[in-house]
Design goal:
This protein is mostly helical. It has five helices and no strands.
């Protein structure tokens, strides 16, 4: 006796229309975005995820290097004034995690690299929340 299960997927076209693709060039800033620097960070982070999924440590390493360089060389914007110690903490932590991600990739530690990438993402979210709160004051 064979039991056949039919799975019906219902696609919500309204939700699908709200999803924006990740830009594949730095020249396409997202609405409300801070410009090319943020786009470069997003693209490098996406490349890290791609490397993690494909177990491509070379891609992870190169992307981690880019993330670290972007964090170190990012020009200070007016809303991120140097007196903002919380922002500086997030920036320092981002550099530290980028370097740790690079190290994990060089040692071909996939689980460690994935964990560090997750921490980087959490740090990014917290920093952006801080900056939104600060600019809304």
């Amino acid at each position: 006796m064979t039991v056949t299960t039919l799975v019906v997927l219902r696609f919500n076209t309204q939700a699908d229309d709200a999803v924006r693709p990740i830009p594949d060039t730095v020249a396409e800033p997202l609405e409300g975005d801070s410009g090319p620097m943020m786009q470069a960070k997003l693209m490098a982070s996406q490349r890290v995820l791609e490397g993690l999924l494909n177990r491509d440590f070379k891609t992870i390493t190169k992307s981690a290097e880019v993330l670290s360089q972007l964090a170190v060389t990012a020009p200070q914007r007016e809303e991120h004034q140097r007196d903002d110690l919380i922002y500086e903490h997030f920036r320092t932590e981002f550099v530290r995690l980028s370097e740790q991600l690079e190290s994990m990739a060089k040692h071909q530690n996939l689980e460690g690299a994935a964990y560090v990438h997750q921490n980087m993402t959490s740090t990014c979210i917290a920093c952006h929340e801080h900056l939104r709160d600060r600019t809304s004051e």
